[in-house]
Design a protein that fits this description.
67 residues, 2 helices, 4 strands, single chain, 34% helix
Length: 67
C-alpha cells in the first residue's frame, strides 16, 4: 500500500480556508487526498512535491509543517 504524506497546515479556520489550501496544492501539481479543518492536516499521495506544495500554501497565506 502506498504511503501518504501528511502536512500540518496552520491558519485554517473555515471551509473557505480548506478550499483555498486545496486549490493551492492542486495548482502546485498534486490534488490532496484530504484536507481536514479540525486537525489541520493535509494528506498527499506518495511522491507529491512537498516543497512546491508548501510554497504554494504559504503564498496563499497559510503556514506549513511536515508531521
Amino acid at each position: 500500500m502506498a504511503q501518504e504524506l501528511i502536512l500540518k497546515v496552520t491558519g485554517m479556520d473555515c471551509d473557505g480556508c480548506v478550499k483555498a489550501v486545496t486549490r493551492a496544492a492542486t495548482g502546485a501539481g498534486t490534488a490532496p487526498i484530504s484536507v481536514d479543518l479540525k486537525s489541520g492536516e493535509m494528506r498527499l499521495p506518495e511522491g507529491a512535491d512537498v516543497a512546491a506544495i508548501s510554497r504554494a500554501i504559504q503564498r496563499a497565506g497559510f503556514g506549513v509543517a511536515s508531521s
